[in-house]
């Protein structure tokens, strides 16, 4: 277990998680108009991008393993990886709600859902394709939703998931499903080592 | 390694098609408000989609750098210099950037039927420099950042750097090379539009090259040299656009207008040739009424930049092919208003007086029913209209000074 924790560089997550909270507090409801195909999207809240910190950090940690040796090992380290992913992502949901209440910024309540979705997407792509593409997938998704995600009236399209209001139950369900599917593919570990 | 082999094994092979598609769509979207047939507008629209190939180049360059690092290229004894090795790895990235920019230009050509004119060439060269700088920085950071993270982080950083400054305060919004608005048919790019981002991009490339310079043996020296290059370039670029306001600065465009009729001739830029019949017709109806109100009919009524001094014996008006008959009449009716350069930020001419003058001109041009000014201005204008013609003209001459002098705006 200690070897696993050392190899995965868990200390990095120890730095990233406080940075994630701090970034959410600092960014609060700040927003910016990012380029969009509809000719000017409504301002995108910058807290939408913060979950990438955790997603990419988790990807790096998961990618620190030795895939071949771990495949043939007696101990199933993928279970530790699975527990790590859940332990990192799950608290973000109540944390987002708590921050939203504390800072009186309703949009922050969606950050946990965004993290669920992006992390699930990363794990899905990691399982289906490659670690290297897995890192790009959540970033490309966010770029795509800011580019194409708003309709002419400025409302987000349902397919964007992460742009939907914090109370959208459908978006929560999709995010949870994507995360669960990503976790299910976790044993099909990555083939490329980070570093 | 041959170029085709480099391309085949590089990340560019995956990214090329999506980048080209998004570049095309973004440019097409950006041409909606651009002037058809105007070369500078074509260059501007193509560059408004520059963030797409820039982010793709940054991400792919970081990816290629990681591949080289994983292969241990930099630790091996080598027969070729570092720059040559890096250039070889970045050749497909250069193709990606060039293809992205050319796709944008092709999309702009299809939509606007225009190729960039001479004024757009420095802008496009700056665009190329920006792509090179994103690739260079992506390659450098790709060599330093953790492997799996370098490409997505560079992709995101490049996208945010290109996308976000447009919503920020000046002069930051003028440093990334992405145009912040469309260019009018009577305007063209100011030197600072391309000089500032070009200088910063050049500094980033120089800084990257200094950071890996084989001649500088110590890391600290390399870091200092790189930081010096980037800082000097950033300060220089900042100085160029330091006094720019929220709207990007432009300069009047030199063009030979197309004119219709005489006494007065009505002249518009060649791209707006289609508006000429409507403008001429409106002038034929409105000018006699203005002459009857005591105005001396000018030789020409011209559409040109309001930053350029108005030629002698000319009035200024606005036209474009989408204007209705009524809007053309309104535009011609307001053309006797005295010319003045646009007021700078937080200053304005006497707005109340200008509204009254416009109302009076509108009544004089014989179209009282569709005028959408405040009633108070219309009432004031009607009172002036009740005066003898000579006194009305005297009043109009008396307000020329307040209509041309910019004073601090009282909020």
Automatic annotation (TrEMBL), chain A:
Source domain of life: Bacteria
Highest classification ranks of the organism: Bacteria, Bacillati, Actinomycetota, Actinomycetes, Kitasatosporales
TM region(s), chain numbering: 39-59, 80-100, 106-125, 132-150, 170-186
Protein name: Uncharacterized protein
Keyword line: Membrane, Transmembrane, Transmembrane helix
From TrEMBL, chain B:
Keyword Membrane assigned: yes
Protein name per Swiss-Prot or TrEMBL: DUF7224 domain-containing protein
Keywords: Membrane, Transmembrane, Transmembrane helix
Organism: Streptomyces cheonanensis
DUF7224 domain location: 266-406
Record-linked InterPro entries: DUF7224
Membrane-crossing segments per the record: 7-26, 46-66, 87-109, 121-141, 148-168, 188-212, 219-241
Keyword presence, Transmembrane: yes
């Amino acid at each position: 277990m200690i070897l696993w924790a050392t190899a995965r560089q868990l200390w990095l997550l120890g730095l990233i998680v406080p940075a994630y909270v701090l970034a959410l507090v600092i960014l609060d409801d700040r927003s910016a108009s990012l380029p969009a195909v509809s000719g000017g999207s409504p301002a995108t809240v910058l807290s939408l991008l913060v979950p990438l910190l955790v997603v990419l950090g988790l990807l790096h940690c998961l990618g620190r393993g030795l895939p071949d040796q771990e495949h043939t090992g007696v101990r199933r380290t993928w279970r530790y990886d699975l527990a790590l992913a859940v332990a990192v992502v799950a608290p973000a949901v109540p944390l987002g709600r708590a921050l939203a209440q504390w800072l009186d910024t309703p949009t922050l309540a969606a950050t946990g859902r965004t993290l669920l979705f992006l992390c699930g997407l990363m794990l899905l792509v990691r399982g289906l394709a490659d670690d290297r593409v897995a890192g790009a997938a959540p970033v490309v998704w966010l770029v795509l939703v800011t580019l194409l995600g708003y309709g002419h009236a400025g409302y987000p399209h349902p397919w964007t998931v992460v742009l939907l209001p914090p109370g959208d139950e459908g978006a929560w369900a999709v995010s949870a499903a994507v995360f669960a599917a990503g976790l299910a593919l976790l044993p099909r570990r990555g083939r490329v080592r980070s570093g | 390694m041959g170029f085709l082999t480099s391309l085949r094994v590089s990340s560019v092979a995956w990214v090329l098609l999506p980048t080209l598609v998004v570049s095309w769509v973004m440019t097409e979207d950006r041409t909606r408000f651009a002037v058809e047939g105007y070369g500078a507008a074509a260059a501007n629209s193509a560059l408004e989609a520059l963030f797409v190939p820039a982010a793709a180049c940054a991400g792919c360059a970081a990816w290629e750098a990681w591949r080289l690092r994983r292969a241990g290229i930099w630790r091996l004894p080598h027969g070729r210099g570092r720059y040559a090795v890096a250039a070889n790895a970045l050749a497909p990235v250069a193709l990606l950037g060039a293809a992205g920019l050319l796709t944008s230009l092709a999309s702009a050509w299809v939509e606007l039927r225009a190729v960039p004119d001479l004024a757009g060439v420095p802008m496009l060269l700056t665009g190329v420099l920006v792509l090179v700088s994103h690739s260079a920085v992506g390659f450098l950071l790709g060599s330093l950042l953790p492997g799996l993270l370098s490409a997505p982080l560079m992709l995101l950083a490049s996208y945010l750097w290109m996308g976000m400054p447009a919503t920020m305060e000046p002069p930051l919004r003028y440093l990334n090379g992405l145009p912040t608005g469309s260019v009018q048919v009577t305007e063209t790019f100011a030197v600072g539009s391309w000089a500032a981002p070009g200088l910063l991009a050049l500094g980033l490339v120089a800084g990257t090259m200094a950071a890996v310079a084989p001649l500088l043996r110590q890391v600290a020296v390399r870091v200092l040299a790189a930081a010096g290059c980037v800082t000097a370039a950033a300060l220089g670029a900042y100085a160029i656009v330091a006094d720019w306001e929220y709207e990007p600065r432009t300069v009047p465009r030199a063009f030979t207008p197309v004119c219709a009729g005489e006494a007065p001739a009505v002249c518009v830029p060649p791209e707006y040739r289609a508006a000429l019949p409507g403008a001429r017709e409106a002038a034929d109806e409105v000018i006699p009424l203005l002459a009857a109100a005591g105005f001396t009919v000018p030789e020409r009524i011209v559409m040109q930049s309001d930053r350029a001094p108005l030629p002698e014996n000319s009035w200024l008006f606005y036209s474009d092919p989408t204007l209705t008959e009524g809007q053309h009449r309104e535009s011609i009716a307001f053309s006797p208003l005295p010319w003045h350069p646009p007021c700078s930020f937080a200053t304005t001419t006497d707005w109340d007086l200008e509204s009254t003058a416009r109302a009076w001109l509108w009544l004089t041009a014989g179209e009282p029913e569709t005028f959408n000014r405040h009633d108070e201005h219309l009432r004031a204008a009607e009172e002036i209209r009740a005066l003898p013609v000579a006194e009305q003209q005297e009043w109009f001459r008396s307000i020329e000074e307040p209509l041309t002098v910019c004073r601090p705006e009282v909020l």
